[in-house]
C-alpha cells in the first residue's frame, strides 16, 4: 500500500526541531529556516541573488571608484545595466528598480556618507615625484629658515546644524559669508607670522575706532575676499622684512 502523506501542525514541527536540537543532530537548512519561522514569524527571509556575477561586478565597481568620483543611485543603476549587457543577462531577469538597488546596497553595506576634507584632490603620483626634490632642496637650509604657508576659509556666520528642541525642526538657509585666512610658520615652530585676513570690506564696522595696524594680524580686502597675487606679493614683502630676507624681484 502506498504511504499516506501526513501533515504536521506547527506545534508538532516545533517539537521536532526542539528534539533535534536537544539530541545534537545536524539540522538541514530547511529545518533551520523552519525553526526561525516558528520562533520569529515576523523575520523577513532574504531571497537569493538572481545574478551573482552581476552583484560581484557592481560591488567591485563601487570599491574601485568610491575614492575617485562621486557615486549616486542613478550612476549605480546605469552601471548595472551596462554590466548586465556585458554578462548577457536576459532583460526580463532584473528590472533595476529603486527597490532592487536598495537591496543591493543593504547586502553590501553601501550607504550614503558625507565627504570630509580635500585629501582626495591631491595627485599622489605628482607628490611621489616631487617629494625627493623638495627634501633635497630643504636639506640646504636649517629648519628655522624653512617656512610653510597655507590658506583656509572662515565662515564666521555659519550656524551649527544641530540644536536642542522638543520636536523636529526645519533648518534655515546657511550663510556663506566668509573670510580668507593665511597662516605661516617655520619648520621648527620658533617663528609664527601674524595671520593674513582677507575680507570684503575696506573698513569693516567691527574695526570702528580701532587702529588695525596695532592688531596682531595683516588685513586686506577685495570684492570676494579671495587671495590674489597682488595681495600675496605684498604680504610676502612684509614677511621678508620681518625675517630679514631680501626677496628677489
Strand content: 5-15%
Task: Categorize the overall geometry.
Answer: elongated
Element-level helix/strand string: HHHHHHEEEEH
Summing up helix and strand content along with how strands pair, one would put the structural category as alpha+beta
Distance between the termini: 110 Å
Strand order of the largest sheet: 1-2-3-4
What is the number of helical segments per DSSP (H or I, 4+ residues)? 7
User: Unreliable stretches, pLDDT < 50, 5 or more residues?
Assistant: none
Level of helix content?
Answer: 25-40%
Largest sheet properties:
4 strands, mixed
Mean pLDDT, to the nearest integer, reads 81
* Quantity of strands, as a count: 4
Radius of gyration: 33 Å
Amino acid at each position: 500500500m502506498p504511504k499516506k502523506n501526513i501533515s504536521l501542525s506547527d506545534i508538532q514541527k516545533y517539537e521536532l526541531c526542539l528534539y533535534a536540537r536537544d539530541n545534537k543532530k545536524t539540522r538541514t537548512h530547511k529545518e533551520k529556516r523552519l525553526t526561525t519561522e516558528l520562533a520569529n514569524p515576523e523575520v523577513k527571509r532574504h531571497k537569493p541573488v538572481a545574478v551573482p556575477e552581476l552583484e560581484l561586478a557592481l560591488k567591485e565597481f563601487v570599491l574601485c571608484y568610491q575614492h575617485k568620483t562621486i557615486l549616486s543611485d542613478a550612476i549605480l543603476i546605469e552601471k548595472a545595466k551596462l554590466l548586465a549587457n556585458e554578462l548577457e543577462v536576459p532583460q526580463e531577469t532584473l528590472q533595476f528598480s529603486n527597490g532592487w538597488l536598495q537591496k543591493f546596497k543593504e547586502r553590501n553595506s553601501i550607504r550614503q556618507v558625507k565627504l570630509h576634507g580635500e585629501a582626495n584632490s591631491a595627485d599622489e603620483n605628482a607628490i611621489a615625484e616631487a617629494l625627493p626634490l623638495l627634501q633635497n632642496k630643504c636639506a640646504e637650509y636649517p629648519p628655522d629658515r624653512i617656512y610653510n604657508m597655507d590658506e583656509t576659509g572662515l565662515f564666521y556666520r555659519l550656524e551649527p546644524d544641530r540644536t536642542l528642541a522638543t520636536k523636529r525642526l526645519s533648518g534655515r538657509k546657511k550663510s556663506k559669508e566668509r573670510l580668507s585666512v593665511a597662516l605661516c610658520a617655520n619648520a621648527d615652530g620658533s617663528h609664527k607670522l601674524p595671520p593674513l585676513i582677507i575680507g570684503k570690506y575696506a573698513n569693516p564696522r567691527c574695526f570702528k575706532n580701532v587702529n588695525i595696524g596695532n592688531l596682531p594680524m595683516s588685513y586686506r580686502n577685495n570684492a570676494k575676499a579671495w587671495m590674489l597675487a597682488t595681495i600675496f606679493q605684498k604680504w610676502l614683502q612684509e614677511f621678508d622684512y620681518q625675517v630679514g630676507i631680501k626677496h628677489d624681484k
